[in-house]
Amino acid sequence: MSITVNLPSVLAAHAGGVRSLQASGRTLGDAVADVAARYPALGPRLRDKDGNPYPFVVFYVNDEDVRFRGGFAAPVRDGDEVTVIPAIAGG
Fold this sequence. Notes:
The chain has about 90 residues and is of the alpha+beta class. It has helices spanning about 10, 30-40, 45, and strands at about 5, 20-25, 55-60, 65, 80-85. The chain has one domain (about 5-85): Beta-grasp domain (Ubiquitin-like (UB roll), Roll).
């Protein structure tokens, strides 16, 4: 199963500059764990030490906000696209 995970530049810097990664898994949490295992510097920016999503990092599966689909328990299928959007603060 291949899922595409799209990262913004600020997170891609922790994945060797790659903005589009391939992942596998049956749920979004599985796919994030797969990416985190291959890119250890990226993992802590996607999920907390317990493996849960941060409230300030939003994940979309095929343009649908997963906060309304069960978060990391949301199912993913072959060909799905995950987009990661971290909150940006500034003034």
